[in-house]
Write a structure and sequence with these properties.
By secondary structure, this protein is of the alpha+beta class. It is about 15% helix and about 30% strand. It has helices at about 30-35, 105-110, 275-290, 315-320, 330-340, 425-430, 440-455, 475-480, 485-490; strands at about 5-10, 20-25, 55, 70-75, 85-90, 145-150, 155-160, 160-165, 185-200, 205-210, 215-225, 235-240, 265-275, 310, 355-360, 365, 370-375, 380-390, 395, 435-440, 490-495.
């Protein structure tokens, strides 16, 4: 099978005709033998009719992309039987977008059959298309973009409805580091939009937000003789103080939380031989006493008792777990009756039985707060429009007809400014001869204050200057003490 592309390395790109041609040596040729066959004299015959290694660009003249010396190109032959006639090139593949400034031919072989021994460069994205470092987004074109890239940090990006001209999109390009987007890049954006978003009248919404608080107390009740059939039950009710730790927060505490290592006994009340009705009343009464902050013949809890929780002790909880081995149906029946009747407030339904978290007096449930949130609805309408925006640390707008800027050629390596001005020319020639742009609304506000002062000022005596306060209430100090110059002038956007 005959070849289609012939890899070569550029040895000279200084085309005297400025046509974008290069001199390049193919990888598969004996260069010395070929040159000897043409009686080629290095230096003298470069770029002449005797030079067999002149390669023309396949790109049209209107697009300039000349590879650097030492870079790889792919050579296309018009007639493969005539190796040194009518040869064209396209820029060779790169091993990484971070090597666009320069990459020698050997390194550029990485992703070809010649590059199996070359180390792989850093991948910017994961296999799923996400960025390994999200700050790399935007440095290089995305999949649907049409673009023209410079060899450094400048490019032109053409999107479906926008064009971006950018410089300084990142501060550095290195093959061993993820590129980081520079938010302070210089750019010009020209865009067309099909829709317009408008803010409607704001509305206040009341939301209930749950609060994660420290649970202060825990009540556990226990009945010792659940197998009793004479309706005479003995047990206790224990009040525990909970420590301030992660698992006692209201988001974490629940019916089965193990709190043995973060609690200590504050008070215990026993009951002996009471009926099921009296036992339920006793336990519910104790829960209500904690809710009220006063235990009969017990300690006063004060205002720092909420939130608190109540539940049966671990023996009863284990009896009622799904799959528990309860052989005695009397035990299961009595335990179920207690569980279904013990609560702070029967009116709040099932959520207060078995386990209850009391967030405030008489309220079962996690702590919450009312928050007023202002919402501004938006309306999207069809409304086509265009805009242009430019941004940089310093923006200069210059008219050639104003003619007050003279560029010193000694401050540039170039004989003129057609390929751009230098940093030194910007600093020495441009900035001193340009003027700050005016913030119109602020200047208008200042002029209005002057106008009001002139119309409304008063003199205490005909020979005295105006009083500090006008009859309309304007202060004279507002005109002279406020830094109007710094507010009205933008020194970083300048004109000549």
């Amino acid at each position: 099978m005959s070849k289609i592309l012939y890899p070569a390395s550029v040895v000279n790109n200084e085309d005297p005709m400025m046509l974008g041609r290069v001199r390049a040596y193919p990888f598969d040729q004996n260069i010395e033998s070929v040159l000897a066959g043409y009686n080629f004299v290095p230096g003298k015959d470069d770029w002449s009719e005797k030079d067999p290694f002149i390669i023309l660009p396949l790109l049209p003249m209107f697009i300039s992309q000349v590879p650097a010396v030492g870079e790889r190109i792919s050579v296309i032959l018009q007639n493969s039987e005539r190796r040194y006639q009518d040869a064209y090139y396209v820029q060779g593949a790169y091993s990484s977008p971070m090597t666009m400034k320069y990459e020698n031919a050997q390194a550029a072989n990485k992703n070809t059959s010649l590059g199996y021994r070359i180390k792989q460069n850093l991948a910017i994205k994961n296999k799923d298309g996400s960025f390994k470092n999200v700050q790399s987004f935007g440095v290089f074109p995305e999949l649907n973009d049409v673009s023209m890239l410079g060899r450094g940090t400048s490019d032109i990006i053409v999107k479906p409805n926008s064009v971006l001209i950018r410089a300084g999109k990142t501060l550095d390009l290195k093959t061993n580091k993820f590129p980081i987007a520079n938010e302070k890049r210089a750019y010009i954006q020209v865009s067309s939009f099909d829709t317009k978003t408008q803010n409607l009248k704001s509305q206040d919404l009341i939301k209930i937000n749950q609060i994660n608080q420290e649970t202060q107390y825990l009540i556990e009740w226990n009945v010792y003789n659940l197998d009793n059939q004479q309706n005479a039950f003995t047990g206790d009710i224990t009040l525990y103080k909970l420590k301030s730790v992660e698992k006692t927060l209201t988001d974490n505490i629940n019916y089965d939380s193990d709190l043995t290592d973060v609690s200590y006994v504050v008070y215990t009340q026993q009951f002996v031989g009471t009926t099921i009705e009296t036992t339920v009343t006793t336990i519910n009464s104790f829960i209500n006493q904690i809710n009220d902050g006063n235990i009969t013949n017990g300690p006063s809890l004060g205002n720092q008792r909420f939130p608190f929780a109540y539940r049966p002790n671990i023996q009863i909880r284990n009896l009622l777990k799904p799959g528990s081995n309860v052989d005695n149906p009397i035990v299961f029946s009595n335990a179920s009756q207690f569980i279904s009747r013990i609560t702070l407030n029967p009116g709040q339904g099932p959520k207060g039985f078995s386990f209850g978290l009391v967030s405030s007096k008489g309220v079962i449930g996690k702590p919450s707060e009312l928050v007023i949130e202002t919402i501004t609805p938006k309306q999207v309408t069809t409304d086509s429009g265009t805009f242009m925006m430019s941004a940089a640390d310093t923006i200069i707008m210059m008219s050639h007809r104003s003619g007050n800027i003279v560029f010193d050629p000694s401050l540039s390596p170039n004989p003129n400014t057609l390929m751009g001005i230098t940093q030194q020319q910007l600093q020495d020639n441009v900035l001193p001869n340009t003027y700050s742009m005016i913030r119109g609304e602020i200047l208008f506000d200042y002029l209005e204050k002057i106008s009001r002062f002139l119309q409304n000022h008063v003199h205490s005596h005909p020979s005295l200057p105006p009083d500090a306060l006008t009859w309309a209430g304007d202060q004279k100090t507002e005109l002279f003490s406020f830094p109007w110059r710094f507010r009205a002038l933008n020194e970083n956007i300048r004109i000549n």
